[in-house]
Amino acid sequence: MKIRTRILLYNTLMVLISLVVLLGVGTSVISVWGFWDWSDRDGSSAKATELMNSLSPTTDTFESVGDRFSELGYALYVLLPAEGATVYGDLSQTTLLESLEAQPEGRAKTYELGEDHVIARKLDPYLLLAVQDPASRDPASPKDLLIWFLIIGAAAIVIILPITSLFTRQLLKYITRPLTALISAANRVEKGDLSTPIEHQGSDEFKTVCDSFDHMQQHLKDERDKNAAYEKARTDMISGISHDLRTPLTSVKGYIKGIRDGIANTPEKQQRYLQTAYAKADQMDTLLENLFFYSKLETGNLPMNMKPLDLTDLVRNFVSDTSLDPNMQQVTLTAHFKEKAHMVLADAEQLRRILNNLTENAVKYAQAESLCISINIEREGDQEVITFADNGVGVAPDKLNNLFEQFWRGDSARMSGKGSSGLGLYIVKHIIDIHGGSITARSENGLQLIIRLPAHQTESPKEELI
Asked: Are 391 and 311 within one domain?
């Protein structure tokens, strides 16, 4: 039940129950009030009864007695029942006589006949009736009304207050329970506990708030774990790069020292020393370039020159240039196209960087005796698909998802000494994301990396092999 609905219901119940209690108390008080004889507050009824009992035909005349009853607010009637005649007074209320159960004997008897207050006495041979005049009955005074109004109000307050207090406590308990849970959860988060969810059952607004808090708490936990993993990976990366830089730097220093100290005492030996030192320096340059490029990616300072370009020409030129590299003489690099042109809107320099990084990654980690790399391009719907495949050992299925993480270096012991920063494939994925594409990996007769880029235009199919 929603909080607003619950509050409305509780308030309605409190008002309804209060009104019922007020009506009940008022009815009870009015009943007690009606039970009392308010018409006889000055004792006129008792005086009239006493007067009726003191009458004697020998001592009083009906006229004088009638005047005395009149002073008390009563009208005197003297009847001869045996003859059916009225001796004194004009009694036209025949129903009054019919209402008397029996003619009273001896002392006076009081009757309440409808609105008539009657005092009757049989004084042989007469029947004396004293009927109170309704106009003589005094209404309750304002003071009496005020007193009874205060009594009714006080009684209602005494009963209503505990009822409203009970409803209010229940409502406050219902509202403060989730608030207390939220405060406790906030204190837990402040102390670093992000794993304990809020326990709140229900379908009200607080359920939504608690669920949002739990979601935020889980997000903070995920971010904390991610940052911890990132910090660990960065620490490992710095340690690895430091080692990878130290190793070639030591080699460069050693070969230069060998030339300086005359250890390389022949031109052939000196040339070999210089070539090795240059290769080691080039390896350090690659590591530093990856770090510099990563810094640009993270700060958003990487310039992108997006233009329509043909992947066919780009890949053809890359294969041609790479085949001339002396370090790639033992690598077979081929490219396959199924159309004349595969147009995309991209930065040519960054796409070439992608191909370079993928090739370096294959050369370092494929572990194939005779490495073969193939680049296939085909059109699928509105996408151009580049499949970069090698014939190496591939990657374990449980580690495929880690390939594109920053600073991930696989088996650190196996990667050590290969100049790996753990940034090559991360840079590849970042560049592809900027181009609005995607990259996935699978192990199938080696490692296959599938790149998908939005197509710019299409042309007729044609098979070509380089």
From this structure: yes
